[in-house]
Amino acid sequence: MIRPGRRDRGAERSLGPLESEVMNRLWAADEPLTVRQMVDSLTGRGLAYTTVMTVLDNLHRKGWAERDLAGRAYRYRPRVGREEHVSQVMADALSSAADQHAALARFVDAMSPDEAALLRAILHDREEPA
Fold first, then answer.
1. Would you give the DSSP letter of residue 110?
2. The CATH number fitting domain 7-78, selected from 1.20.1560.10, 2.60.40.1120, 1.10.10.10, 3.30.565.10
3. Which of 32, 66, 81, 125 is the most exposed place for a label (fewest CB within 10 A)?
4. Dist. CA 57–CA 25, nearest whole Å
5. What digits encode the pLDDT tens for the residues 28-80?
6. Domain range list for the chain
7. What per-residue string of b and e applies to 90-120 under the rule 16 or more CB within 10 Å gives b?
8. pTM
9. Rounded Cα gap, residues 64 and 51, in angstroms
């Protein structure tokens, strides 16, 4: 499993608020985006081109985004999917709990019946045959 944000991969920790917003735009895009396209998609934020360029460069260095040179501009795309990111956030939260059993129990207690049924099905599929 690719785990951006893990120190053993040479990447920094989790995403900041602006990095998360930029990643959400990359995940939603149908194709790789240039810095200019990202700036245009973040209208209303009042962000400078250089700010967005720095964020995208940081995401690339952290292993969250890949980039290809297209003419004189880089085009950025996510390196991992949104679900992989959510999985990492959940794993990081669990690993930071002093009592993982209690943390998992509270997580399961907060699930809807449909979510609990889905979790049961996933766990059932992972069981090894006897």
1. T
2. 1.10.10.10
3. 125
4. 15
5. 999 999 999 999 999 888 899 999 999 999 999 999 999 999 999 999 999 98
6. 7-78, 82-126
7. eeeeeeeeeeeeeeeeeeeeeeeeeeeeeee
8. 0.71
9. 17
Helix intervals (H) in 29-79:
35-41, 49-62
Q: Which two tokens stand for residue 98?
A: 């002093």
Tokens of 84: 């992989």
